């Protein structure tokens, strides 16, 4: 009876998850989609608990450990509270970090579940034992890579780890070697005797496949670290999405080892949709997904700014003042604002929104141009602008607005760099060559708000800075924007 | 060689094929020019001015037709009104005619002139290539027609075009709606805009958006998934459903418009009826429709050719001689493009040097000394129809921004490898594994399809929700915790797994919710 209910509940939960992903594809249905996901999760957890606590037949009934129930309730409660606090406190600009760190939790959970399953006495027939062990092994491998990779991604997004790609010599060979070692360890692991301890005797565990399993886990952790370390800052959005996909695969692997269809379905859903999302993003950046995974993006970037900074596009920088920009804006008929990560970092979206409202009220045509990979997550800018209540009728995507730059009087580039870099179109030797960019330089005037002359996240110099029609307004984006707002208010 | 400029005899035709200016240029080429007396009167070019430009004046039309080696005209030759004398019958064998000709619609005329053993170059058959732009009479005339359409509308429209706030009250700007953004449509947009109106424009070609917006007008988008999109464009007639959807959209905009200027034409077919009677009824009294397609049956069923009528309080202008109503300007431009062609086919002023390899010469050539040369082999048939047609023949651009389900070759190989690997595992593994594998692969396919159409703005929330859902690993922790005979080690590990997974679940859903709330309009 309970098993039928459980199967039905799993079916409902799976459908809810599918509806949830589907719902998230348009604005109108997104909120509903999120609720579907939540309902699905609640149903899944409750039904699993019920099914486990009241198993069929009297044989197993006695076996339910009450300490297990206690631990479950405690962990569930504490975890939910921590998660809730994290989610409600996080600033919208730190969203990418939060997502990355949450991925690492899934990876960690997969590893823990895998090891625990290995230690658990199973009822498998001898024939299935090999398959079961392989499932455990693969689950832990994927989980560990997800875990350490996400931690590094988190560090990079936080700025605690350098965003420059770390390129060890022969890194592809290193990765390959690590994978081969994992396969070798798998053989040892499969040949080891079962680890199930005789009552209370933990030593038998250590003599079984455990050392091999732990060694592999360690290797997988290193592999995850190395893989993400080798990926440059510019590709971080794709990496986060890719890790999202990995976390799904880890969950699916856990499903295989536990023979749990819901885990398999959900994991596969998340895994494949995450993969597609990564693919869509790669297309937006005109990069091959293998290129991103194999890393080393911006490999020349280390050398370039050093050489390029002094030699190549070096020219005169036109520095400007708040007063001059104010005049320009008030005299313009059409203005486009290009926000970038700098705006997010400085939390300047609210004053920027006020500037755009002010200009709009003066009859000036104002629009926002959003590059698909602006910020650290695609859609990041839309999230911030939505937070600042910018009407999304005037928020345009790159393809919609690129043709309008020539007829625009002033473009305000706020804390963006790589996404407005003309080298992506002009210079085949540039590491970002071929990436679609916002063609701001075609406008009559470009005003760049920038902290300093540093290169963007991809570590590539930007010749736009030296353009004749580019004016530079140096300073912290928030302060510059605030001053601009005051001056505009006074000027109007 | 003698060039003859006869007076046009078509009713209401006020243009002339040569101006004193081009006469002077022809003289410089070494050509003699003979102009029929009064040929330029309607365009305000007096005989005396032609004379001072170097032309001789013929008192009657006959010597112009009989003596000239090359005749320059606006309209194709026709019977003189009230007589049985056809203009072309007077041409001497071997002479040439350059004028609008519309060979597709004038088979009889072609036969008649072939019998005379004359050469005919049709201005309307000019190929649409860059080099031929300065000989493009259709565009030149369409430009004038578009401008004039606005002027005619303004004349019949009882209000200002521009909005004003005056002491005597507030004036709302006129709402002008232009159908078809070809040359004529664009000229109409520019003229209406210059008068201060608010202008919207409609065109089925997405490529027209940029041109419309560059003139400061608003583009009205039409979305309809006609089968075979991407090849048809307007060259074919669209299905009835397509037309109905178009009519509905136009009716909706017509209601808010004071002036409609319609320029939609299909080459060689009656004009599409875009403005329905219902749309006309819904317009405010005093509104004006200028139907520039009146010659091909009109874009509005209520249009009467060559007339200005009032239906349901709306003035409908069906004039077909719009360029001719600005005869001076139209003659000026037409004479120039005709001269440009003449210079191209007769560079030394001695004889007609037609080069059949030349795309322009071959394109405009209808008869060569009486031999039928039309239609030219390649490029295709000359454009029939009026002003707005040329660009309409371009294929529709493929809709951009639509995700394509094509994967890169690398991705395909990776997929194939993964499937092969899983298949072997399925065959070698226990039956239970095979069952799990089925579920797994089906779920992969669903996940694959579900997210293809996600809007870029929702990437972050989508990622965040999938992250929350992958917290389903929580179930795994529960199975371990509550399973049979959980050891202390399993308790510890499972507890930790449940802890981190539940952080993920709670955090993921909550943060997605927060994000989505901000997305409200």
Structure description:
The complex is a heterodimer of chains A (492) and B (521). With 492 residues, chain A is α/β, with parallel strands linked by helices. Helix content of chain A is 61%, strand content 6%. Chain A contains 20 helices and six strands. Chain A has a six-stranded parallel β-sheet. In chain A, helix 17 (380-387) links the parallel strand 2 (365-370) and strand 3 (395-397). In chain A, helix 1 (2-23) runs antiparallel to helix 2 (27-53) and helix 14 (322-331) crosses helix 20. Chain A is elongated. Chain A starts with a helix and ends with a helix. Chain B has helices at residues 20-28, 47-53, 61-67, 107-115, 137-156, 183-194, 208-214, 240-254, 277-282, 327-345, 359-364, 389-392, 409-428, 431-450, 459-469, 473-482, 488-518; strands spanning 2-5, 32-36, 56-58, 70-72, 96-99, 119-122, 164-166, 169-171, 175-179, 198-202, 218-220, 259-262, 288-291, 308-311, 314-317, 365-368, 371-372. Chain B has an eight-stranded mixed β-sheet, sandwiched between helices. Chain B has a seven-stranded mixed β-sheet with strand order 11-10-9-12-13-15-14, sandwiched between helices. In chain B, strands 7-8 form a two-stranded antiparallel ribbon. Chain B is built from 17 helices and 17 strands. Chain B is of the alpha/beta class. Classes of the chains: A alpha/beta (492), B alpha/beta (521).
Name a few traits of the molecule.
heterodimer, A: 492 residues, 6-stranded parallel β-sheet, 6% strand, elongated, B: 521 residues, alpha/beta, 7-stranded mixed β-sheet, 17 strands
Largest inter-chain interface?
A-B, 129 and 94 residues
* Helix and strand run of chain A: HHHHHHHHHHHHHHEHHEHEHEHEEH
What's the rounded overall pLDDT mean of chain A?
A: 79
Distance between the termini of chain A: 74 Å
Order of neighbouring strands in the sheet with most strands of chain B? 3-2-1-4-5-6-16-17
Given the helix and strand composition of chain B, which structural class is it? alpha/beta
Biggest sheet descriptor of chain B:
8 strands, mixed
Strand portion of chain B:
5-15%
Query: What is the total tally of β strands of chain B?
Result: 17
């Amino acid at each position: 009876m309970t098993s039928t209910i459980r199967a039905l509940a799993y079916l409902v939960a799976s459908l809810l998850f599918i509806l949830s992903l589907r719902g998230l594809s348009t604005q109108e249905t997104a909120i509903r989609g999120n609720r579907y996901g939540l309902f699905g999760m609640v149903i899944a957890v409750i039904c699993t608990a019920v099914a486990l606590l009241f198993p069929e037949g009297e044989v197993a009934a006695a076996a339910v450990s009450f300490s297990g129930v206690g631990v479950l309730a405690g962990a569930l409660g504490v975890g939910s509270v921590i998660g809730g606090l994290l989610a409600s406190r996080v600033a919208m600009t730190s969203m990418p970090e939060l997502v990355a760190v949450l991925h690492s939790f899934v990876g960690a959970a997969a590893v823990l579940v895998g090891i625990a399953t290995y230690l658990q006495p199973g009822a498998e027939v001898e024939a299935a034992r090999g398959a079961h062990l392989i499932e455990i092994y693969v689950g832990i491998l994927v989980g560990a890579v997800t875990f350490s990779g996400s931690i590094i991604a988190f560090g990079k997004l936080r700025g605690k780890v350098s965003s420059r790609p770390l390129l060890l010599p022969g890194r592809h060979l290193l990765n390959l070697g690590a994978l081969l070692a994992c396969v070798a360890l798998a053989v040892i692991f499969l040949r080891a005797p079962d680890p199930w301890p005789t009552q209370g005797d933990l030593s038998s565990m250590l003599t079984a496949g455990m050392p091999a399993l732990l060694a592999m886990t360690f290797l997988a952790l290193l592999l995850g670290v190395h893989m993400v370390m080798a990926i440059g800052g510019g590709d971080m959005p794709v990496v986060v999405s890719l890790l999202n996909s990995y976390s799904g695969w880890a969950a699916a692997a856990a499903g295989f080892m536990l023979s749990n269809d819901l885990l398999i379905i959900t994991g596969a859903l998340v895994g494949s949709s995450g993969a597609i999302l990564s693919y869509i993003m790669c297309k937006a950046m005109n990069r091959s997904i293998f290129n991103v995974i194999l890393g080393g993006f911006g490999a020349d970037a280390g050398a370039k700014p050093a050489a390029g900074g002094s030699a190549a596009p070096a020219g005169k920088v036109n520095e400007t003042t708040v007063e001059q920009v104010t005049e320009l804006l008030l005299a313009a008929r059409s203005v486009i604002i290009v926000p970038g990560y700098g705006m997010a970092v400085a939390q300047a979206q609210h004053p920027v929104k006020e500037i755009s409202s002010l200009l709009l009220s003066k009859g000036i045509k104002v629009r926002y141009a959003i590059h698909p990979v602006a910020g650290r997550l695609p859609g990041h800018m839309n999230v911030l602008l939505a937070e600042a209540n910018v009407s999304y009728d005037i928020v345009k995507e790159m393809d919609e607005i690129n043709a309008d730059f020539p007829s625009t009087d002033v473009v305000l580039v706020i804390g963006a760099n790589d996404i407005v870099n003309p080298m992506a179109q002009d210079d085949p030797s540039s590491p970002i060559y071929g990436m679609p960019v916002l063609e701001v330089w075609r406008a009559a005037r470009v005003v760049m708000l920038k902290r300093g002359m540093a290169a963007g996240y991809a570590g590539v110099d930007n010749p736009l800075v030296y353009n004749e029609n580019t004016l530079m307004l140096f300073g912290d984006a928030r302060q510059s924007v605030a001053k601009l707002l005051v001056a505009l208010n006074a000027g109007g | 060689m003698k060039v003859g400029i006869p007076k046009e005899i078509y009713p209401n035709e006020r243009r002339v094929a040569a101006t004193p200016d081009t006469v002077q240029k022809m003289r410089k080429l070494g050509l003699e020019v003979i102009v029929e007396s009064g040929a330029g009167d309607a365009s305000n070019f007096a005989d005396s001015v032609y004379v001072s430009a170097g032309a001789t004046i013929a008192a009657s039309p006959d010597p112009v037709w009989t003596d000239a080696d090359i005749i320059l005209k606006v309209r194709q030759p026709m019977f003189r009104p009230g007589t049985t004398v056809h203009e072309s019958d007077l041409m001497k064998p071997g002479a040439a005619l350059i004028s609008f000709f519309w060979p597709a619609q004038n088979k009889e005329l072609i036969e008649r002139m072939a019998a005379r053993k004359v050469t005919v170059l049709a201005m309307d058959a000019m190929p649409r290539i860059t080099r031929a732009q300065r000989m493009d009479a259709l565009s030149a005339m369409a430009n004038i027609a578009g401008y004039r359409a606005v002027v005619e509308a303004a004349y019949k429209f009882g209000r200002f075009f521009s909005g004003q706030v005056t002491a005597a009250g507030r004036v709302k700007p006129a709402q002008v709606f232009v159908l078809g953004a070809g040359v004529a449509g664009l000229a109409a947009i520019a003229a209406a805009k210059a008068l201060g109106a608010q202008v919207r424009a409609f065109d089925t070609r997405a490529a027209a958006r940029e041109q419309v917006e560059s003139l400061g007008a608003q583009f009205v988008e039409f979305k309809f998934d006609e089968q075979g999109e991407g090849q048809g464009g307007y060259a074919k007639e669209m299905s009835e459903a397509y037309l109905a959807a178009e009519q509905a959209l136009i009716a909706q905009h017509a209601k808010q418009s004071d002036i409609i200027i319609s320029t939609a034409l299909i080459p060689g077919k009656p004009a599409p009826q875009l403005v329905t009677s219902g749309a006309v009824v819904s317009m405010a009294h005093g509104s004006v429709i200028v139907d520039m397609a009146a010659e091909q049956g009109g874009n509005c069923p209520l249009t009467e050719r060559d007339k200005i009528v009032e239906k349901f309080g709306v003035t409908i202008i069906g004039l077909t001689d719009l360029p001719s109503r600005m005869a001076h300007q139209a003659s000026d431009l037409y004479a120039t493009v005709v001269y440009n062609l003449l210079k191209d086919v007769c560079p030394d002023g001695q004889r007609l040097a037609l080069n059949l390899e030349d795309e322009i010469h071959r394109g405009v050539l209808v008869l060569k000394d009486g031999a039928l040369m039309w239609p030219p082999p390649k490029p295709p048939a000359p454009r029939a129809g009026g002003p707005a047609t040329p660009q309409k023949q371009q294929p529709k651009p493929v809709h951009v921004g639509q995700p394509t389900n094509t994967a890169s070759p690398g991705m395909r190989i990776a997929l194939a490898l993964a499937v092969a690997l899983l298949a072997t595992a399925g065959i070698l593994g226990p039956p239970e594994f095979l069952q799990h594998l089925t579920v797994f692969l089906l779920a992969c396919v669903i996940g694959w399809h579900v997210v293809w159409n996600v809007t870029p703005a929702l990437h972050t929330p989508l990622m965040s929700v999938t992250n929350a859902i992958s917290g389903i690993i929580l179930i795994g922790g529960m199975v371990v915790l509550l399973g049979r005979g959980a050891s202390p080690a399993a308790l510890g590990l499972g507890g930790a797994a449940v802890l981190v997974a539940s952080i993920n679940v709670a955090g993921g859903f909550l943060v997605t919710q927060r994000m989505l709330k901000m997305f409200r309009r």
